[in-house]
Amino acid sequence: MGFAVLLLFIYFVFPPATAAEKGFGEKLVEGGRVSVSRAPVYDNRYVRMKYPLGDPGWQWGACVDMVIRAFRFASDNSSDLQKLVFEDIKKSPASYGISTPDSNIDHRRTRNLVVFFRRHAEVLPVGSKEDAPRLYQPGDIIVWDIMGNGKPNHIGIVSDKVNADGVPFAIHHFRAWRGFTGRPSEDDCLFLWLVLHHFRWKD
Asked: Which helix (H) or strand (E) holds 137?
């Protein structure tokens, strides 16, 4: 076979890792948009739920629930953050500062997702607006400090949509405040708040 045909054969039989990663990131974006379309009302109340694959109910949710639902969508339920986080806490409770794991709520706390992603995902630079077009990919996870207290208190997914400067939008679920509706949305808000963490999950 010709050299060009051989290259095509190798590419399709042994696709590069970046192609697989991009595919999962695109699915995460699609999963985030499912939450946007279903429009649950912001509510971060404690809810008892089944384990694994428990959910507080699609009529409501918070920023973490949008991410959890997107991971399940992107992986056909194999990447269940409820189960993954709960099992990781049981393995290393000191890493989370938790003595008694609770499968109803531990995965629904942004601070715990930060610990989990630090331990199991690719940790990437935060950068600035100028760096964003080259640093951020669709499906990356971002964690913000929206309170100005240096703590992780909001989480979202990087979109494949970008603004005029090439800075990606973010899909997130924010409470009703200053133009936000209290329902999941896709906004030009990546650097609206201080970005504390930037992760990339390899399914």
From this structure: none
Distance, in Å, from the CA atom of 38 to the CA atom of 33, rounded to the nearest integer, reads: 9
> Which tens digits make up the pLDDT trace of 137-181?
999 999 999 999 999 999 999 999 999 999 999 999 999 998 999
Residues 72 and 53: beta-carbon distance below 8 Å: yes
Q: Which pLDDT band holds residue 62 (cuts at 50, 70, 90)?
A: very high
Sign of the dihedral defined by the CA atoms of residues 50, 182, 101, 110, in that order? positive
| Average confidence (pLDDT) over 121-128 | 98
From the list 189, 193, 200, the residue with the least C-alpha distance to 124 is 200
Torsions phi, psi of 103, nearest 5?
Answer: -70, -10
Contact in structure between 157 and 141 (CB atoms under 8 Å): yes
Is 64:108 a contact under the CB 8 Å cutoff?
Answer: yes
Is 119 strand, coil or helix? helix
Q: Is residue 104 within 8 Å of 57, Cβ to Cβ? A: no
Q: Could you tell me the pTM of the whole model?
A: 0.88
